[in-house]
């Protein structure tokens, strides 16, 4: 049975959903992840989270602990910024069309929830995205030669990716569910906690092994490695001879 998931990269529940989708896809289960922007009216630079809001996120992760399967874990560092995720959605929409969607989904999720990076900033995403985008199958010059996936105004580079973001948002809006993630399967529409529980059941059905937590995106390849692995390039960008630093959240 195939599953369709709608999710935003800055949603705590979507972090767990993203990891479970990785497990299912690795086990050969067909899962179509579609990125949507949960809070499109945020300022371009995002919004600093108050101490109460950060406490609320920590509490939400504590509640999600009850749903964890053996081997699963959740981040313990709470970001200081709530980003406007338009740029992240745009990057994912480009990656979706060129065969590197899984890499970019992992990267964007880890950058925000493990590093606190402003994934709404095209400048912040430029270096990390370069590797997976260059490894994709695009014939568009900006993507194929330079690894660009997000324009300066946070939109996609190609019309196809722009149309994809619009379609995903319309589909999600038509479902009438404001809670994310949303999972569609077998004619059922599940959201929030119910969606996470269904993904967990699918993992049980598939008898899929739980993958370890995602690596630090800034980790360098082992000493003496002449050519980095595709996984490392996916995290750190195509020009591996120089590292990159994720700008601190404002």
TrEMBL record:
Pfam families the UniProt entry points to = DSBA
Give the SUPFAM superfamilies listed for this entry.
Answer: Thioredoxin-like (SSF52833)
Q: Which residues form the DSBA-like thioredoxin domain?
A: 3-126
Q: What's the superkingdom here?
A: Bacteria
This protein's name: DsbA family protein
The record lists the organism as: Jatrophihabitans cynanchi
């Amino acid at each position: 049975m195939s599953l369709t998931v709608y999710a935003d990269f800055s949603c705590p529940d979507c972090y767990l959903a993203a990891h479970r989708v990785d497990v299912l896809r690795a086990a050969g289960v067909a899962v179509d992840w579609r990125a949507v922007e949960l809070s499109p009216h945020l300022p371009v630079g995002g919004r600093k989270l108050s101490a109460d809001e950060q406490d609320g996120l920590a509490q939400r992760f504590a509640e999600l602990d009850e749903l964890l399967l053996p081997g699963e874990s959740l981040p313990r560092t709470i970001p200081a910024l709530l980003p406007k995720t338009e740029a992240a959605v745009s990057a994912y929409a480009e990656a979706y069309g060129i065969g590197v969607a899984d890499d970019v989904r992992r990267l964007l999720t880890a950058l925000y929830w493990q590093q606190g990076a402003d994934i709404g900033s095209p400048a912040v995403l430029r270096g990390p995205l370069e590797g997976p985008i260059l490894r994709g199958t695009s014939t568009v010059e900006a993507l194929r030669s330079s690894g660009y996936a997000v324009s300066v105004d946070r939109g996609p580079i190609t019309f196809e990716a722009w149309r994809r973001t619009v379609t995903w948002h319309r589909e999600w809006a038509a479902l009438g569910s404001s809670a994310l993630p949303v999972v569609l399967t077998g004619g059922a529409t599940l959201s929030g906690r119910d969606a996470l529980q269904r993904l967990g059941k699918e993992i049980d059905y598939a008898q899929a092994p739980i993958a370890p937590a995602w690596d630090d995106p800034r980790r360098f390849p082992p000493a003496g490695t002449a050519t980095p692995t595709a996984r490392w390039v996916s995290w750190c960008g195509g020009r591996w001879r120089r590292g990159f630093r994720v700008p601190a959240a404002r």
